[in-house]
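Consider the tokenized backbone below.
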């Protein structure tokens, strides 16, 4: 039983990182139908910036602000330079454009930080042992911050004027234009949100899973699979998808073969696309966000 609980905890912590990444995909796709393949690079960039900032002697709060701010700016510039100029955006074109941005970011990170993976200093706290299960303080940070962010994102879309405007653009873009909502500004805001979510995921995960110039590739793909489980349009579905994917990976690695961990996401993706392309965990009432 202790082994099972240990695997579930490990899966939930990595699944929380997938969930944050998946929320970034959902934020962008619902507004502009753009599949942002650079989402994983947002996380990798945030982790590397945070590591450099810690090396420069900055305190943790300043490090987090700097890392998140840097990625948000990169996401906004990306939207203005590659997405906004396109008048007729298609999903295929968005994949090509964001893949180009992803490749550019990876090359820049390789040039600046080199090929070696690095880990951010763990956040404060003490590791625990509960009922034979080892609980790392960083895992609690990941789960706790993810829960807070998930609630904040839900509150933003449900309660704020800007969030309701994004929902309107996602559900009825023509009607949104008629009432004066700028789709271009909504798209920019969605990329800012995606950058923020990706940066939080990258900073939280770095102490355990390390950051490297190419670490965003796997994270981005798994975040996309998690978002796909929710139909790419559901906040709750993306969160649930990330947790389910993380737990499945952990169980397969623990009980079958650790070498099959990375294959789980792609098996799940194929199954979803074949059996239920609308998303397994998507709620019927979750039109748009």
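A designed sequence for it:
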């Amino acid at each position: 039983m202790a082994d099972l609980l240990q695997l579930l905890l490990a899966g939930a912590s990595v699944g929380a990182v997938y969930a944050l990444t998946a929320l970034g995909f959902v934020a962008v796709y619902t507004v502009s139908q753009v599949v942002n393949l650079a989402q994983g690079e947002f996380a990798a960039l945030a982790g590397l910036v945070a590591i450099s900032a810690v090396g420069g002697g900055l305190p943790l709060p300043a490090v987090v602000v700097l890392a998140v701010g840097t990625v948000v700016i990169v996401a906004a510039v990306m939207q203005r330079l590659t997405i906004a100029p396109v008048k007729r955006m298609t999903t295929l074109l968005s994949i090509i454009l964001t893949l180009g941005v992803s490749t550019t970011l990876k090359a820049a990170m390789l040039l600046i930080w080199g090929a070696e993976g690095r880990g951010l200093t763990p956040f404060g706290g003490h590791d625990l042992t509960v009922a034979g299960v080892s609980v790392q303080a960083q895992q609690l940070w990941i789960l706790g911050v993810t829960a807070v962010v998930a609630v904040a994102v839900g509150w933003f879309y449900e309660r704020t004027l800007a969030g309701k405007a994004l929902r309107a653009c996602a559900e009825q873009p023509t009607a949104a234009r008629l009432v004066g909502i700028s789709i271009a500004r909504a798209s920019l805001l969605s990329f800012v949100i995606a950058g923020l979510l990706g940066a939080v995921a990258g900073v939280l995960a770095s102490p355990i899973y390390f950051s490297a110039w190419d670490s965003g590739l796997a994270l981005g793909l798994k975040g996309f699979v998690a978002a796909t489980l929710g139909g790419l349009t559901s906040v709750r579905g993306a969160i649930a998808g990330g947790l389910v994917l993380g737990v499945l990976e952990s169980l397969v690695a623990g009980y079958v073969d650790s070498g099959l961990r990375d294959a789980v996401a792609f098996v799940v993706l194929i199954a979803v696309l074949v059996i239920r392309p609308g998303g397994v965990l998507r709620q019927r009432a979750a039109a748009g966000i």
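The chain has a mean pLDDT of 89.
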